[in-house]
Amino acid sequence: MPSTRALIRAPWSASKISTALRCPRLYHFKYVDKVREPEVMPEARIGKAIHAALEDALGGTSVAEAAARARADLPDAHEQARYDQLTANIAPFIERIARFRRRRRVVRQLVEFSLAVREDFTTTSFYSGDAFYRGILDVGYVFDDDSIALVDHKTGVRIPGTSIADQLEGYVVLTHAWLRSASRFWLGLHWVAERAVEWGPPVGSDEVMGRMRPGLLDNIEAAALAVDDGPRTNPGSWCERCSYRTLCPASREQRYEPVEYEEDDEADD
Ligand code: SF4
Question: Residue 236 pLDDT > 70, yes or no?
Fold first, then answer.
C-alpha cells in the first residue's frame, strides 16, 4: 500500500511525478498553490495543437480540416509556421496507421482515452475523488489476439537514449487494470517531427504485475518524498522551458547572474 504521504498528494500522473522529481518548487506552483501559468511556452502551445490535430484526424476528420482547426488556436505567424512544419507529418502517420490496421485485426481504437486506478489498482473514473494514479492515452489499438499497442505522440526533440519503458509504463499499468483480457502490450513513441514510430519489445502481464506496478509505486513514493519538505528550488537547464520562471527567484538568479570582473581582467583591457 502507498504511504500516507503519497496518498494525500493523489491523484498522481506521469507528468506530476516527473515534475516533483525534477523541481519541488515547480510542483508547488502547479499542483499545490495551483498558480496560473504566467507565460505559456510556445513549445507547449504547439504541442497541444499538434495533439489536438492528431486526435481529430485519428477520429476520422480529414487531415486538412483537423490541422486547420487546431492552427486557429496559435497566436502568431511564427508559431503557426512551426506548427505547419509538424502538421506536414500528420498525413503520412494517418496513412501508416491505416495500412497497419488493414494488416492487423484491430477490434478497437482508443484515442485520448482517460484511465484511472485507485491505490489498490482497481479501476475508477478519471475525475473520481478516489483516483490514485491516472493518465490519458494518446492512442491505443486492441487486437483480436488479446494484445494492445499503445502510442504516445512526442512533438519535442527526440532525446537519444530515451527509454520507451520509462515514458509509457504508467500507461501500461493503467491499461492492464482496465482491459483485463489484454495479455501483451506493445509500446511505441511517435516522434512527430521525425515521422518515426519507435517500438519497444512487447511486455507481458507478468512483467506488468511483477515489475511495472511496483516500479510505478516506487516512483510515486520518491516524488512524494521529494516535495514533502516544501517548495525547494532545483534550477537547471529545464528552467528555460519553465512556465513559472518569471515568478521563481532561482531562475532569475540563474539568468541574470552578475558578471564579476577580476582586477587583472581590467588591467588587461
Ligand atoms: S524556474 Fe527552474 S527552479 Fe524555478 S520553478 Fe521553474 S524549474 Fe524550478
Answer: yes
Q: At what angle do helices 213-226 and 14-22 cross, to 10 degrees?
A: 40
C-alpha gyration radius of the chain? 21
pLDDT in tens, 125-153: 999 999 999 999 999 999 988 899 999 99
Query: Given the DSSP bridges, would you call strands 196-199 and 184-191 parallel, antiparallel or unpaired?
Result: antiparallel
The CA distance from 235 to 23, in Å, is: 7
Residues 170, 14 contacting (CB under 8 angstroms):
yes
Q: From ligand 1's centre to the CA of 252, what distance in Å? A: 9
Segment (H or E) for 28: none
C-alpha cell at 51: 495533439
User: At residue 158, what is the residue type?
Assistant: R
**The dihedral sign for the CA sequence 150, 155, 158, 159:** negative
Strand pairing report for 184-191 and 147-154:
parallel
Contacts (Cβ under 8 Å, ≥6 apart) of 13: 133, 134, 135, 170
Q: Does residue 242 surpass a pLDDT of 70?
A: yes
> Domains, the chain, ranges and CATH?
4-252 (3.90.320)
pTM for this prediction? 0.85
Q: How far is the CA of 35 from the centre of ligand 1 (A)?
A: 14
Angle between helix 14-22 and 164-178 (nearest 10): 140
User: Cell match 507481458: residue?
Assistant: 204
CA distance from start to end of the chain:
66
Q: Report the nearest atom of ligand 1 relative to the CA of 239.
A: 2
Q: Measured in angstroms, how far is the CA atom of residue 38 from the centroid of ligand 1?
A: 13
